[in-house]
Write a structure and sequence with these properties.
By secondary structure, the protein is α/β, with parallel strands linked by helices. The protein has one domain (6-303): 3-Layer(aba) Sandwich (Indigoidine synthase fold). Strands 1, 2, 3, 4, 5, 6, 7, 8, 9, 10 and 11 form an 11-stranded mixed β-sheet that branches. The chain contains 12 helices and 11 strands.
Length: 304
């Protein structure tokens, strides 16, 4: 029985009835970084990547007191263009729903909503994590807490490069969240193929990842899984090129905190890189979407 706060699009309702594999997508990628109407075009391209692999995309957003699983064209246009739309994390969900507000969902909120809708796989660009100087600021993404409590598999290109990657991995380890490299032995660095940080686990096929998910479910483990898929080599930005840009953006962001810091940094990095980081971001999400769809197909076959 579906939760009464969920609204399923016609495509998702059909997919559920026909037991088709579904891949969840966050809507917050429309709320910063890419301007309207390019953000709509990009989102539709990412959804098409999933369809091309045989699965069904479910972009998640909030509107008029409902969590929308699958977004139609009218709501997509509103979420992508209205200045009244906010970015909602897990802590904001009840408030936004109770106030009939419109919101794009972050990684943490999308994970929660996907699990509520019984969707086991979610694709994003990169997860949040531990910010630099977190010892003083305590700025740690809610994504890490969500990964420790919500059994959803997240396909990403590691954590965003603006973060402290070693500390992010340490916290995931502490929370019991497996981080598995897809065809890699190192943690991806978002814009770059590798961070130089070794990973304990590696899997090389979507079938192997689906089998991991099956055993995670059999054990009744309540945490998520991170599948770390490096950015395609053709789209990566070398460390020696992107790191000076990231450091400059971080210096400019010293007086910014809370949920505003990540959008500011990503926007500033896009400006300083003359759009190269934005192109890389789009390409890695498309790559993750294709992988997520293949995993969803394999999981559906093993789950039947």
């Amino acid at each position: 029985m579906m939760h009464d706060l969920l609204h399923l699009s016609e495509e998702i309702q059909y997919a559920v009835e026909e037991k088709r594999p579904i891949v969840a997508l966050e809507s917050s990628m429309m709320s910063y970084g890419i301007s309207y109407p390019d953000n709509v075009t990009t989102t539709r391209q990412i959804e098409q990547c999933i369809r091309d692999q045989g699965a069904i995309p479910a972009t998640i957003g909030i509107h008029q007191g409902k969590i929308h699983i699958g977004i139609d064209e009218s709501l997509m246009q509103r979420l992508a263009s209205s200045s009244e739309v906010i970015r909602a994390s897990r802590r904001d969900l009840a408030y936004v729903l109770s106030r009939n507000m419109s919101a794009c969902t972050t990684v943490a909120a999308t994970m929660f909503c996907a699990h509520l809708a019984k969707l086991p796989i979610f694709v994003t660009g990169g997860i949040g994590g531990v910010h630099h100087h977190a010892a003083e600021s305590f700025d740690i993404s809610a994504d890490l807490i969500e990964l420790s409590t919500t059994p959803v598999t997240v396909v990403c290109s590691g954590a965003k490069s603006i973060l402290d990657l070693p500390k992010t991995l340490e916290m995931l380890e502490t929370q019991g969240v497996p981080v598995v490299g897809y065809q890699t032995d190192e943690f991806p660095a978002f814009y770059s193929h590798s961070s130089g940080i070794p990973l304990l686990h590696r899997l090389d096929t979507s079938d192997e990842i689906a089998r991991l998910m099956v055993y995670q479910r059999k054990l009744c483990l309540k945490n998520g899984i991170v599948i770390a898929n490096p950015i395609p080599k053709t789209a990566e930005i070398p460390d020696d090129q992107i790191m000076p840009i990231i450091k400059q953006a971080q210096r400019e962001a010293k007086h910014i905190n809370g949920k505003s810091i990540t959008p500011f940094l990503l926007q500033r990095i896009a400006e300083l890189s003359a759009g190269q980081s934005l192109h890389a971001n789009i390409e890695l999400i498309k790559s993750n979407a294709c992988l997520g769809a293949r995993i969803a197909m394999a999981y559906q076959n093993q789950h039947l």
